[in-house]
Amino acid sequence: MSDKPKLLLVDDEPGLRAAVQAYLEDDEEFTVTAVPSAEEAWKILEIDAPDLVISDIMMPQVDGYQFLQQLRDDVRFKTLPVVFLTARGMTTDRIQGYKAGVDAYLPKPFEPDELMAIVRNLLQRRNASSEANEEGSKLDEIVKELAAIKGMLNQKPGIIPIASPIKIELTPREQSVLDLVARGLMNKEIASQLETSVRNVEKYVSRLFSKTGTNSRTELVRYALEHGLTK
Fold first, then answer.
1. Using CB atoms within 10 A of its CB, is residue 24 exposed (0-12), middle (13-18) or buried (19+)?
2. Is residue 110 located within the same domain as residue 160?
3. Distance (Å, rounded) from C-alpha 147 to C-alpha 82?
4. How far apart are CA 83 and CA 76, in angstroms?
5. Which of 17, 18, 165, 188 is least surrounded, with the fewest CB atoms within 10 Å of its CB?
6. β-strand partners of 107
């Protein structure tokens, strides 16, 4: 399956639709699906959502503004980048487009290079936003793990170490990293304490996971407390 960004082009003018599609696909950077109406566009959206939509405004039945409103009213497409291509270049028209939630407004006739630049910029912003959301989710998971670790530390006096059936040998540096993980420190903080790189800390934590058969910092600390591997 291709991992190229997917663009959906909606324009009822066959000549312009074909020309824009050919230009966008010329360097094989994008995969472009071109349709003549908003109704046809929705069929594509329901089957295989694109990464960005390029739409004309002046179309029969459902015009660009109505189409955009339908997109913004659907939770699946609220943040989908949309570019308007239109012969209506008046300031009031552009203002109406931006109020409706369009991301970019390009009056006809336009320079194809400008359209390409707009598309690339919007896709980069979309990717950056997705990465930020992913990092935020990871941070939330780490915060939850730290809360669990702190809870275990508060209960530590009541934990009775059990004899490990297999003696685990830790190097001095692995032991230091384990002790700091048990204190709830993050990799960056551990690296600062031990005067090493975050990458090295990540390697030590990975080794600790492997040696203890654990998969997360919470499991690692629980294992260490139960087996008397950390104070």
1. buried
2. no
3. 41
4. 17
5. 165
6. 86
Sequence-ordered alpha helix ranges (H) in 48-160: 64-73, 91-100, 112-154
Q: Supply the Cα-derived Rg of the chain in whole angstroms.
A: 27
Does pLDDT of 91 surpass 90? no
The mean pLDDT of 99-107, rounded to a whole number, is 84
Over residues 94-112, mean pLDDT: 81
DSSP 8-state code for residue 11? -
Give the distance, in angstroms, between the CA of residue 34 and the centroid of all CA atoms in the same chain: 26
d(CA 62, CA 96): 16
Where among 131, 147, 163 does a domain terminate?
131
- Tokens 């297999």 identify what position? 166
**Three-state secondary structure readout of 129-141:** HHHHHHHHHHHHH
Residues 212 and 122 reside in one and the same domain:
no
Predicted TM-score of the model (pTM):
0.55
The two three-digit tokens of residue 99, written as one number: 């109020």
Exposure string over 166-193, b if 16+ CB within 10 A, otherwise e: eeeebeeebebbbbbbbebbbbeebbee
CB count in 10 Å sphere of residue 208 = 22
Q: What gap in Å lies between CA 6 and CA 51, rounded to an integer? A: 5
CATH number of the domain encompassing residue 112:
3.40.50.2300
Closest CA to 184 of 135, 143, 137: 143
